[in-house]
Write a structure and sequence with these properties.
With 119 residues, the protein is mainly β. Helices cover 0% and strands 55% of the residues.
């Protein structure tokens, strides 16, 4: 499976971005997918995940109400809609293939995309 994240960039506090993860080599018919992020000097942390079988979603507390995870299963795409962005959301965001959505168990990682929230 190859995963490619895109959509990062520089945005002002309060702004929005949509990240996309394109998957090749698998179908979105079972299992789960998720987003993680890593800030400089910190561990890679769970952000959000989605079950591909029932659509259940999971979020870390700091992004609840601001971020929305979704998929386009026929196109093998996963999205992370990020609203009301804060400077502390600045990180490299990685998409991942998961065995289970929560607690997330990673099968494979994609390349990251950098999100910078700054005025």
């Amino acid at each position: 499976v190859q995963l490619q994240a895109s959509g990062g960039g520089l945005v002002q506090p309060g702004g929005s971005l949509r990240l996309t993860c394109a998957a090749s080599g698998r179908t979105f018919s079972s299992g789960a997918m998720g987003w993680f992020r890593q800030s400089p000097g910190k561990e890679r942390d769970f952000v959000s995940s989605i079950s591909l079988s029932d659509g259940n979603t999971y979020y870390t507390d700091s992004v609840k109400g601001r971020f929305t995870i979704s998929t386009d299963n026929p196109k093998n795409l996963m999205y992370l809609e990020m609203n009301s962005l804060k400077p502390e959301d600045t990180a490299i965001y990685y998409c991942a293939e998961l065995t289970i959505p929560y607690p997330a168990k990673v099968l494979s990682w994609g390349q990251g995309t950098l999100v910078t929230v700054s005025s």
